Amino acid sequence: MIIIIGGGHAGCEAALAAARLGKDVMLFALSLDSIALMPCNPCIGGSAKGHLVREVDALGGEMGKAIDATFIQSKMLNMSKGPAVYSLRAQADKKRYMAYMKQVLESQPNIRLREGEITEIITTAPGGKAKVTAVVTDSNETIPCQAVVICTGTYLNARCLYGETINHNGPNGLRASTKLTASLAKLGFTTQRFKTGTPARIHRRSIDFSKMSPQEGDQNIVPFSFSTPGGGRPRGNVFEALDTSHSQLIAEGDSVIAQSEATITPRGQLQNSFPALPQVPCHLTYTTPTTHEIIKKNITRSAMYSGEIKATGTRYCPSIEDKIIRFADKERHQVFIEPEGLDTAEMYVQGMSSALPADIQEEVYRSVPGLENCEIMRPAYAIEYDAIDATMLTLQLEAKSTDGLFFAGQINGSSGYEEAAAQGLIAGLNAAGANITITRAEGYIGVLIDDLVTKGTTEPYRMMTSRAEYRLLLRQDNADIRLSPKGHAAGLIPQAQYQLFLQKTAAIEAEIARIRKISIGPDAANPLLHKKGSSLLKSGMKLTDLIKRPELSYFDMLEIIPAPELGHLPPFIQEAVKEQVNIQVKYEGYISLQMAQAEAFGKMEAQPIPPGIDYGIIPSLRVEARQKLTALRPENLGQASRITGVSPADLSILMVHLKSTKHTV
After folding, report:
1. Collapsing DSSP states into helix, strand and coil, what is residue 620?
2. Nearest-angstrom CA–CA distance, 61 and 227
3. Average pLDDT value for residue range 622-626
4. Greatest CA separation found in the chain?
């Protein structure tokens, strides 16, 4: 039996991964009504986070399929930049996303869902090292198990604060987990207090959209999941008339939904058209000088500035108070108004999380154009919670001190649904015995986990493209090429899906080989080059060299060369093949350079360090390096090289020691 503690995004992926590998799983949630809850922004993806979702999907996880079934707006970000930083983001229908994931969990063999709180982890220590044997519930029931994955999110010793109001509960008014921290402390885990927050939700009817700029989604929609058929088909906007009453909008939305609601199989595959739901706009407005003055005048009433909150907050998602104080030179800040779903009037005010008192929040929000008469349905609040020191974990997210005890999500110091899902998938796989590790050169998941367990974090960690050294290799478009073989080997990618993947990769290789042999003469190429504003040819040129011109692409060349033979593949796979051919040829030089760097990196990662090595006896190793290496116990030379306080000279000494003691370097 594997016990999953928590039913958020980490817990869902952990439970599904372990169950799909044939393990008996029991998932405990404080409330079964909070399965896959999005207590903050109801969106999936975004810069770098979209990469994580696609990697989770490539490995056989569920998040990409869930958002494909339930999104109400989709947008590919960073399209003015290179493909390495393209990131997909989708606004979810919050309730439908939760319902989708709960239905998938309920229909998955081997999973039992239980409402309740886990208060204690029971371990034994035969031969010295502890091993998980059972958990204890809040009703004093002891449940034997072989492994536990702790995914408590922001519920561990949580308290929500705004102004002088302090509620000892988790997000959305749900109960907190209050006893597990003491059990973890007894097992030797160090904990720290982190803080995040969420803005108010306001009633749609109280918003004047005429004072805001509509923010439409993409017309050509790209799915998150590599197995979702469809995409690229323009959709109409169900909320086109901004002056239409809310009741009419909901009626119209429900009418469309009734005709196109997604059907879910036990593996969560969509059975109808894509997108499954109507697409709706978000809206953009800005804070004003009045907004800033109100906040400055009342800053000491904010729980974050009154001294009540001492936990460390999120650097990359600051509250509106932090924005006004830290960026005092800025005259205004963006505010996005985003729907929480098709059948609710609640609108999410992105960019204005706060811990001000409710009455001051109303003043602040009403100073924003379009929100002059806004009705607050749920006030904004800050939330404090416990997290562990993730350097106490291995790269498989297992506790170094305790066999069978895994951690995933915000308890490890990360922030975000996507980061949680990625960790949950890896922890669930390893709890089930898959023994899977993703390196920094293989995926953003590897960067995320390596950063947390090697360097630790003193503030909520957010994934960003700048954290990845090999981001040209780790694009969101090729996540399946990078990771599907691992997902299949682990047992999460069905054979039929994997065969289609193999056909796709073979088609990519064949098409690249074909076009390498093609040269184009002036007569054939110049009409197209003239149209594209590209230099004309005086003699023949290789097709691949033309594709590398900034103003040209492989898709342009298909106007003058025979199309590839892809009729054996589904249309959405055909388009994916063409996209990969274009990117791999156009950026060939840069990709080759990063591949060489990644190969050198791989050699360091492949050199294991014996777990019982005594760093104290290694001659010439600096004291700081000995202390850091002893404390963190890196699994390989690559991980050792990334530990703060371990210099290149220390690493060279360690390599010599390993070689002299018959460990291959």
Report:
1. coil
2. 11
3. 92
4. 84
